[in-house]
From TrEMBL:
GO CC aspect terms: dynein axonemal particle; extracellular region; neuron projection; nucleus
Record Gene3D superfamilies: 2.60.40.790, Tetratricopeptide repeat domain (1.25.40.10)
Subcellular location: Cell projection, Neuron projection; Dynein axonemal particle; Nucleus
PROSITE patterns, alphabetized: CS, TPR
BP terms from Gene Ontology: determination of left/right symmetry; epithelial cilium movement involved in extracellular fluid movement; heart development; inner dynein arm assembly; nervous system development; outer dynein arm assembly
Gene Ontology MF terms: nuclear estrogen receptor binding
UniProt protein name: Dynein axonemal assembly factor 4
Keywords: Cell projection, Cytoplasm, Neurogenesis, Nucleus, Repeat, TPR repeat
Biased composition (Basic and acidic residues): 136-157, 168-204
Principal cellular location given in the protein's record: other
Domain CS intervals: 3-87
Gene name per UniProt: LOC108902238
InterPro entries, per database record: CS_dom, CS_DYX1C1, Dynein_assembly_factor_4, HSP20-like_chaperone, TPR-like_helical_dom_sf, TPR_rpt
Length: 399
């Protein structure tokens, strides 16, 4: 049999009733609150607080908050007046049981309605995510088709131009040959009879027209790091390029484990793009799965860990976000201009996770590191200053 709570307190205004129920050391997760328009129950085994309210209340506008050591229930009155008592003055057990049963039935109906609303919302969100994904894929297909059509049109135009030139050259050669034949015939008619033997001399065959000259444009790959010579960090830059090349060649997954995967699912870059699209549509779990599969195949791509850290931040997996951000920063060594933006993103993501864990000193270090890379970023400046204010405020309270 539960122990009834009698050491509660209550206050009121003309519009609201406030009830304070001590929880007697019970954790917040073990407190069950049931509230309807005429009944209130706060159950935290083995204790029970039960109230048959003096007047009906507006349950939709009422609320309950679980604080350290107490539950605070705010009940919105249906009429603006002051209650003489919190509870009805009756000892009729049958009437109380009827009120309790009606309240529990209403509460169950409310829970079912909320569950249906939540399920409907989730279905709508999944439908929206699917439609967004299909729209992105359709736009990508249209973009690829436009590129193909443009390339096909360009190739067709070049082919038609080449055929026209070939036709013009053939006509020019034909006219030149007729002109030479007329000259040879005229020369033969003017030549004396005694020299007829020379006229039978074989004429040289017509030579093909010389090929038209064309210029071939040769481009060279520009240097990735346009750093002045006196400030050059050639050794670090070459080391970063070498690590990038190794990362592109690296494949760590066991061939047997990948035997059931499609061809595209064996491509880390394709999986990364798939994860990025899922993240954009809010499907963070699918994005994490895509990044996980990509990391199984190639553990040396920093963007996979950094992007997975962003997903964990959205899902509230703060410790995993810190771990992935740290792994990304370890792979972004040596620090050079080409990976500066990636280092800033990973630092901000780790700093955000630290701050959400209330480890503000560690978070401030990461934000300052990102701000050092991008000193003109106003958003970074604002966030860094806010963290500093929180730390200073905490230090002032301790003194």
């Amino acid at each position: 049999m539960p122990l009834l709570v009698t050491d509660y307190s209550w206050t009121q205004t003309e519009t609201t009733v406030y009830i304070h129920v001590p929880l007697k050391g019970t954790a917040a997760g073990k407190v069950d609150v049931v509230s309807t328009d005429e009944y209130l129950k706060v159950h935290f085994p083995p204790y029970l607080f039960e109230a048959f309210l003096f007047e009906p209340v507006n349950d939709d506008r009422s609320s309950a908050k679980i604080r350290e050591g107490e539950a605070v229930i705010s009940l919105s009155k249906t009429t603006n007046n002051m209650w003489r008592h919190l509870m009805r003055d009756t000892d009729d057990k049958i009437k109380k049981m009827q009120v309790r049963e009606r309240a529990l039935l209403k509460y169950q109906e409310k829970l079912c309605s909320e569950s249906r609303s939540k399920a409907e919302k989730q279905r709508a969100e999944r439908k929206y995510a699917l439609e967004t994904m299909m729209k992105l894929e359709q736009e990508e297909r249209h973009s690829i088709q436009r590129i193909k059509d443009t390339e096909r049109q360009r190739t067709t135009t070049e082919m038609e131009t080449w055929q026209l030139r070939q036709k013009q050259r053939a006509e020019e050669k034909s006219q030149g040959k007729l002109h030479r034949d007329d000259q040879n015939k005229l020369r033969a008619e003017k030549q004396p009879q005694g020299h007829s033997g020379q006229s039978d001399r074989k004429q040289p065959a017509d030579l093909p027209a010389p090929r038209t000259s064309r210029n071939i444009q040769v481009t060279f790959t520009p240097r990735v790091f346009p750093t002045a010579l006196r400030e050059s960090r050639a050794a670090e830059e070459e080391e970063w390029l070498r690590k990038q090349a190794e990362a592109r060649r690296a494949v760590n997954a066991d061939v047997e484990e990948l035997g059931d995967l499609k061809e595209e699912d064996r491509n880390p870059e394709w999986l990364k793009n798939k994860g990025d699209k899922c993240f954009m549509t809010g499907d963070y779990l699918s994005a994490v799965n895509a990044y996980n599969l990509a990391i199984r195949q190639n553990k040396r791509i920093p963007a996979l860990y950094s992007n997975r850290a962003a997903c964990h931040l959205k899902l509230g997996n703060l410790h995993k976000a810190i771990e992935d951000s740290s792994q990304a920063l370890d792979l972004l060594i040596p620090p050079v201009a080409a990976n500066a933006a990636a280092r800033a993103r990973a630092s901000v993501r780790r700093g955000s996770a630290f701050c959400r864990l209330q480890l503000y000193a560690e978070g401030l270090q990461d934000y300052q590191a990102a701000l050092k890379i991008d000193p003109h970023n106003e958003a970074l400046q604002t966030d860094t200053q806010r963290i500093q204010d929180i730390i200073q405020g905490s230090a002032a309270k301790t003194h």
